[in-house]
Amino acid sequence: MAIDKKDYPIKIEDNLWADNNHVVFFYNFMFEKKRYRGLIDLRDKTSWGKKDRVTYAKGELVRIKNTKRDVTINTNITLAAYMEEYWKSQPDTKYTATRKSHYERHVKPHIGQKKLIELRQIHIEQVLKKQEEPTYSPGRRKTIVLSERTRLQTLEVLRPAFKKAVANRIIPYNPCDGIALKLPSTKKNCGQCGRNVEQNLCCDRRGIQRRSVLSRTVSIGNTGTTKGGNYHTPLGRYIFR
Predict the structure, then answer these.
(1) Is 233 inside any structural domain?
(2) pLDDT at residue 123 in the model
(3) 182 occurs within a structural domain
(4) pTM score, two decimals?
(5) 141, 199: one domain
(6) Domain of residue 39, residue span
């Protein structure tokens, strides 16, 4: 059946258009004087949001173009196999060891055996969602729930790893693009003044901190009496009479 471009009036980007519902996408591009046209049909993925369908369609177009250009190196490599080589290229530091440990415990069990070329944004989001569930920690011998900061390490591990894979033309795009985790605020309402401020920086807590810094400054800078002295501290100028 012939494709009628009029059925896809919404331009997503160069070479890619969508129907009015953003469910079926039409691509049309030239390569080596040959035209390629086709549809990316996502009618079986209507449960996805509009943004997810658009992101998927963009990725599929890149994959189709790369297939025509034959630029992929190994379409059968799994994430686990790729990451094994990726860690070898990273510096031998405590930071790398921490990130590798996080990957081995909280990422690899979920998507390690998936082919790198098949990974999509939704797979990364599923991993992050899975990490919200209580899990048993053998090291701690109890059930734990990962904090938002710990879950954020998943993106800190995968985003640069996928970026390297894109640079080496193993995958067409980074599946972590467009994914963000919002860390909980460290602010809270002060029990005395009611202001919403960073913890430990208000009222009595701030006064204790101010006096503590002043005490350290005076003891370090002057071993004698404090009578009649002017003292400058990181928190201000103090006068003793």
Answers:
(1) yes
(2) 95
(3) no
(4) 0.50
(5) no
(6) 5-69
